[in-house]
Amino acid sequence: MIQAILIFNNHGKPRLSKFYQHCDEEQQQRVVRECFQAVSKRPDHVCNFLETSNLFKSNDSRLIYRHYATLFFVFAVDSSESELGILDLIQVFVETLDRQFENVCELDLIFHVDKVHHILDEIVMGGMVLETNMGEVLSHVEEQAKMLRSESSSFLQAMKGSKAASKVKSIGSRLGH
Amino acid sequence: MGKEDMRGLSHFIADIRASKSKEAELKRINKELANIRAKFGDKKGLTGYQKKKYVCKLIFMFLLGHEVEFGHMEAVNLLSSLHYSEKQMGYLFASVMLNEQHDLMRLVIQAIKTDLSSRNELNVSLALHCISNIGGKETASEVATLVQRLLVADESPNTVKKKAALAMLRLFREAPEQVAIAEYTPRVIQLLTSPDTGVVTSTASLLTALASANPDEYRSCVAVAINKLHRIVLARSEQEDYIYYSVPAPWLTVKLLRLLQLFPFPGQPTCCSRHVYVCVCVCLSVCLPVCDGRPTRVRIQYFNVNHACMFEAMNLIAHYDNNADLQIKACTLLGDFLIHKETNMRFLALESLSVMATTEYSHEAVKRHKSSVIRALKHESDPTVQRRAADVLYALCDSEAVERVVDELLNFLDHADYSVREELVLKIAILAERFVKDYSWYVDVMLRLIRRAGDHVAPEVWYRVIQVIVNRQDVQDYAAKTCFEALLDPAVHEAMVNVGGYVLGEFGHLIANDPNSSPVKQLEVIQMHYPMVSASTRALLLSTYVKLANLFPEIKSHVLQVLKTSHFLKNADAELQQRANEYVHLLQTSNTDVVPAVLEEMPPFSDAQTTLLQRLETKRTTVTEKTGTLAARKRQEGKKIELGEVSAAAHSAVPAKSETTVINNDPFFDKFTLVNDGVLYENPVLQIGVKSEFHGNLGRLTVFYGNRGDAPMTGVTTRAFVPNAPDALSIDARPIDATIPPGVQLQQQINVECVTYFSDAPVLEVSLKYQGRAVVLALKLPVMLNKFIEPLTAPMDAPTFFKKWNQLGGPPREVRQIIKAKEPIVLDQLHEKVVSFGLPTMPDIDPKPQNLVCAGIIHTTNAQIGTLLRVEPNVEAQMIRFTVRASVDAASVIVSNLLVSNF
C-alpha cells in the first residue's frame, strides 16, 4: 500500500502531506525532512526508486518520486506496490492537477491545499489506488464543485432570510414590552 | 469554492510566504493562532463559513509543521453541518489531524454513521473516505456492517461500491475480527466481474488483503480473476476510458497479477492454466510498432505502463515456477533490460532477476547474465541500482562462480553506501562459507572482510569465522599465520583483534617454530593491541595470554608477571579482574595436570547451523505478513531452503546428519540418556520441556510447551513415531490445543510401550505457525532402550553372576568397546553414571575393586532381555572398557552404543 504522499518544493517546503498510516505530528515532519534529504540530492538521470529504512515502523518502504520543475512528488510505498505503476500514478495525479488548474504551478498548490486534497482523495483512498481514469476523477471533482456552487447561491438567500426573520423577531419582542 | 472565496485565507498564506525569516513566519502564525482561538472562544458563535475558513488556516499551519492544539471541536462540528462545503472541510480536517485514539473520535464515528446512510452520494463518499483514512478498531465495530452493505448492495452506485471496497479494506487491516466478511465472500468475488474497471480495481485490492490472510477461503476467485485478466489483455474489451497510453487498464492488470500470486498454479480447470500462460505471454511481448511516430514523452509513458505489466507477469511465473520456456524467455528479456538506457528499467530488471534466481527453472538462465550484473555493480552511478546488482549476485552465486562473485562484492564493499554495508558483509560471509572449496581461501576472504569493513561486521560474523577455523583442522595453521600477520598492523580493527587473539590462543603453537612468529613475538603482538580495545576484547585477550603460557613454558613467567600487575588484579572491570586473578592462581598451581586440562584446545563446535542467515533475516524483516509481496515472500522461501542447505554443509568435522530442513533438538538431547527430566528444545520464543517415568515396559512422558513470545502459536499439531522401526514402540500421544497463547504453557501426555528392542529414539514432530511462519520441529524424545532396564529382583552373588556371564558367552551376544574417557575418570562419578544409566552395580563380585559389574533386565512386551555389564576403567590411560552381554545380540549392541556415547 501507499504509506504516504508528499509534495515539497526544491527547498524542502512541504506543499502537501498525506499519511495513510497513523503518525504523530513530529513523525510526519521527520518523514518529510528525511524524504527531502533522500531525493533532493539525486541527479536527474538516476532511477526514480529509492529504498529507505526506518521511515515508518514497518521498516519496509520505498520512495518513488518524480521531479517537476520546482516540485518533488514523493510516494512512500511498501513492497506490495508495483514501482512503475506508482510512477504512472504520479503522472496521472499531476496531469489531473494540470487539467484542473490549467497549467498547475506551485502557487496553485499553496492557495488551494483543500482542493488538491480533494483531487488526491479521488485518486488514492486509504493508501490504495482508487481511480486511474482522469476523466472519472475530474467528473467527481466537478460534481463536488457544482454542489458547492449551488450551496453558495442558496447560502446568500438563507442569510437574507435569516436577517428578515431576526427583524420580525425584534419587532415582536418590542411589542411585548 | 471560487477564487474569491476565503479572501482572509489567501491573505494569510501570502503573508506567511512573504515572511523573510523563520522568526517572522512564527510570529505571523502565532498571531493568527491567537486570533482564531479568540474567535472560537467567542460565545456569539461563528457562521459555518467562518469556521470553515479558520479550519482551513489551521490545516495550512499544520502542514508547515506548526502544532495545532485547538479547533478540533469546531472542525468536528462541521461534520454534521447541512452545507456540503462545511462538511467537506470538516472531513478534511478529521482525515489530516485526527486518529483513532483521539477523544473526539466518538463524535466523528457518529457523523460517519449518519452520512453512510445519507441519500446523497457525495456525503456517503466523504464518510467512506474518512473511514479509509483514520478508521480503527472502534470505527470498525460501529460501521463495518454498514460498509459491507454498501459494498454488496445492488442499488449502490459504482462510485460508492469502489470506495466501500477500500473502506472495508482499511477496517479489515485495522480490526480483522470485527469484519465478518466471510458470508459475503461469493458476492465480493462476484464484484470482480463488474463492467466498471474502478470497482474491479478496488475489489482486487480488497481481495488481495483478504486472501493473503486466508487463501483457502478465497480460492474460488482465481478463475474469476484469470477470466477478467484474459479479457483485458487479450480481448481488450475494457471500458474505453481506462486505456492509458494505449494500454488497457494497466493498474488493474498489475493488481490481478499480484492477486494470482497468492495462490498456487491453477491446474484445474485446464482453460484457466492455458489462459494464465496466454496472459503472461502477452504481457511479456512488449510490442514496439504501436507507438512509432509519436512524441518521446508519450513513448516513454507507453513503455512505462507496458513494463509495469511485464515485470509483474514475470513475478507471477517465477511464483508458479513450472514453465521453463517462459521463465527462460523472461530471463532473456531481462538481459536486454540490463543495458536499457533508462536507469529505472535497469533497476527493475535487476530486481526481477533476483526473484528469478530463486526459482528452480530459471536459476541457470539468470547465471548467464552474471557478467552484465557484475558490470552493473561496478559501473552504475546510482547506489540503489548497485545494491540490487549485489542482491542478484548473491542469489546467482554457485560454487563455480563464488571466487569471482565474492571478489566483486568485496570490491564493491569499499565504496558501498554505509546503510547497506552490514547486509553486504553478512552476504559475503554466507557465500564464502556456503560455497567454500578451499578453506584457506575462506580464511583470506573473511580476514579481508573484517579488515576492510570492521565497523560493519556483526559479532555473529567473526564468531562464525572462529567456529569454522576450530572445526577445520586443515586450515588452522594457515589461519594462525595469516591472523598473526594481520595483527602486525597496529591500526587493525578490533574485530580482527578478537579473531586473531582467539586463533593465536588456540593454534598459535602451530606457527611457533617459525622464528618470525615465535611465542614471544605472538605475545608481543597481542600486548600491542591490548590498550586500544574494549573490555570484552580485553577479556578474550587475557585468555589468549594464559593459553599461550600453557603451551610455551618459556613465556609463562612473563605472562605471570603481566597478569600480576595491579592493572589486572585490581581492574575496575569485574570480568577482567576475575579472569586475571583466576589465571594467576591457575598458572601458579602445583598440580601439573590441571592447567593443561583447563586450557585444552577447544572441541569442535557441534552446531552446524549458522546464525548468519538468521541475522540476515532479522536485518531485513521487511515484510509484514498482510502486505507481503510475492517477490519478498519468494525471497523468504528461498531463504528457508538455504537454511537447510547450510546446516547440511559439511564444515564441521562431523558430517551433519539431518537431511531435512526441519529443526531438530540434537544439542539438547544427549543428556537424556542419563536423566529423565529436562529441556527438550529451547529457543527465544519457545521452550519445550519433558518429564518422564518408566515402569517395566511402560513409560509415561509429560511434554510442556511454553510460548515465551508475544504472539500466539497457531495450528499446533504433533505426531510421534519411531524412525526405522515403526513397530518397536507403541506410542500414544494425546492431542493438544491448536493454539498456544503468548506466555502460556500447555501439557501433553505421551504413553509409550516398548514392544521390542529399538536403536533410534522416537521422534515427536511438532508443527506450528508463529507470526505467519510455519515451523516443524523434529524432537527426539528421551526414550531409549536403557530406560526400560530394571534391576534384578533378587541380589546376585559372585558365582551366580559368573555362571550367567558364561552362559551368555562371547560374541555375538557380547559386545566390547574401549573408549577414551571424555572427562577425567573419577571412580565415584563413574559409578553414579552407570547407576543412572539404569544398571545398578553389584559390589564384591569382580576381583578388581575399581571394576563395576551390573545386571538388569530389559522389559519389552515381546521378551525380557537379561543384560550383564562389566566396566573396567583404566585411570592412568584415561580409558574405559565396556563389555555388555545380553540374551539378544542386537540388544547388546544397542546398550553398548548408548553407554559409549555417554562416557
UniProtKB/TrEMBL annotation, chain A:
Keywords from the UniProt entry: Membrane, Protein transport, Transport
GO BP of this protein: Golgi to vacuole transport; intracellular protein transport
Domain AP complex mu/sigma subunit: 1-146
A Pfam cross-reference name: Clat_adaptor_s
A single Gene Ontology CC term: endomembrane system
UniProt similarity note: Belongs to the adaptor complexes small subunit family.
Record protein name field: AP complex subunit sigma
Source organism of the structure: Salpingoeca rosetta (strain ATCC 50818 / BSB-021)
From TrEMBL, chain B:
Membrane topology: Peripheral membrane protein
An example molecular function term from Gene Ontology annotations: clathrin adaptor activity
Keyword Hydrolase part of the UniProt annotation: no
Main localization (coarse): membrane
Localization per record: Membrane, Coated pit
Key word Membrane present: yes
Segments forming domain Clathrin adaptor alpha/beta/gamma-adaptin appendage Ig-like subdomain: 670-782
Pfam families: Adaptin_N, Alpha_adaptin_C, Alpha_adaptinC2
Gene Ontology biological process terms, A to Z: clathrin-dependent endocytosis; intracellular protein transport
Gene3D superfamilies: 2.60.40.1230, Leucine-rich Repeat Variant (1.25.10.10), TATA-Binding Protein (3.30.310.10)
InterPro entries reported in the protein's UniProt record: Adaptor_Complx_Large_Subunit, AP2_complex_asu, ARM-like, ARM-type_fold, Clathrin/coatomer_adapt-like_N, Clathrin_a-adaptin_app_sub_C, Clathrin_a/b/g-adaptin_app_Ig, Clathrin_app_Ig-like_sf
GO terms for cellular component: AP-2 adaptor complex
Function in brief: Adaptins are components of the adaptor complexes which link clathrin to receptors in coated vesicles. Clathrin-associated protein complexes are believed to interact with the cytoplasmic tails of membrane proteins, leading to their selection and concentration.
Family that this chain belongs to: Belongs to the adaptor complexes large subunit family.
UniProt name for this protein: AP-2 complex subunit alpha
